[in-house]
Design goal:
Structural class: mainly alpha
Number of helices: 13
Shape: globular
CATH architecture: Orthogonal Bundle
CATH class: Mainly Alpha
Largest sheet: none
Order of helices and strands: HHHHHHHHHHHHH
Number of strands: 0
CATH topology: Tetracycline Repressor, domain 2
Radius of gyration: 19 Å
Helix content: over 70%
Distance between the termini: 51 Å
């Protein structure tokens, strides 16, 4: 019983349901690579890879940041600093998820397997970036931005430079909302020596940088639609994404971050799902 209770606490800690952020973009990459819906088993293993990779990354982040979380009033109630989980259990869970990720990649193709350790290095390495650079947000963006390129490789067994445009778009999308999210901890990070854009440049400049990042994201998505000739339906999807991003930025400000969780979790989940749906319909009708 203790094992299952700890496992349940771990799944709650890593918020596995938030896989919805990157998974739709991975599925977008898969649909673009296949020119339609991929084979069911390919989709299955791509989804398993995504869930395992994210679970490993989130668990490792909580393991690596346990002492930092304990010192931050906002995060002191997380499972490890609160004593609900041991670092040993979370470390073992991380290893198990990483091994399952590598196994799942091996079920796709040889290149997916060979690149799986590289993906893990980026995913796990992110946890230490805020100790090194204020631009750790971009590393988190890369961690999620790899998803569509990885899915392309999973389908085709090779990489096409066009899908890297979607990688770039996801990178700046994630980095932008991570800059906003980090605004909550700017004062604490400054006090304990952690680095972030809000800590280094202040909240007003951080909000400006987040807006620029999201502007770059939208430009890259326009380019993506052009490269793949996705037409009007995907174009309308981009209009919806643009409107949601504008709304996301309208409900938070440097002086009022009460609705930050709504902007960070709810709206970004909706953005990724809607974009995938519009692209999937466009590709299906086009082919």
């Amino acid at each position: 019983m203790a094992f299952w209770r700890s496992l349940g606490t771990t799944l709650e800690m890593i918020k596995w349901e938030h896989s919805v952020f990157a998974l739709p973009f991975a599925l977008t990459g898969a649909v673009l690579a296949a020119g339609g819906w991929p084979h069911a088993m390919q989709l299955f293993w791509i989804i398993v890879c995504m869930i395992m990779a994210r679970s490993a990354a989130m668990a490792f982040n909580r393991w690596a940041d346990a002492d930092l979380d304990a010192a931050n009033p906002r995060t002191a109630s997380r499972a490890i600093p609160a004593g609900l989980l041991s670092r040993g259990f979370v470390g073992a869970f991380t290893v198990a998820m990483a091994l399952l990720f590598v196994f799942s990649a091996s079920r796709l193709n040889r290149l997916s397997l060979l690149l799986s350790p590289v993906a893990l290095a980026v995913l796990l390495g992110y946890s230490y970036m805020k100790r090194i650079t204020r631009w750790s947000h971009l590393v988190l963006g890369l961690a999620l931005g790899m998803a569509p390129a990885a899915a392309w490789i999973a389908i085709r067994g090779s990489l096409d430079a066009r899908i890297l445009v979607l990688t770039g778009a996801v990178l700046f999308w994630v980095a932008g909302f991570d800059v906003l999210y980090a605004c909550q901890d700017a004062a604490h990070d400054r006090a304990v020596g952690l680095r972030s854009v809000p800590q280094a440049l202040g909240l007003h400049k951080a909000f400006g940088i987040a807006r620029v990042m999201h502007g770059v994201m939208l430009l890259l998505l326009v380019w993506l639609l052009y490269l793949f000739h996705l037409g009007a339906i995907a174009g309308w999807g981009l209009v919806v994404v643009t409107a949601l991003l504008f709304y996301e930025h309208s409900i938070v400000s440097p002086t009022d971050m009460r609705r930050l969780n709504a902007a960070f979790f709810t709206l970004n989940g909706i953005i990724s799902v809607l974009f995938f749906c519009f692209v999937a319909v466009a590709v299906t009708l086009h082919h």
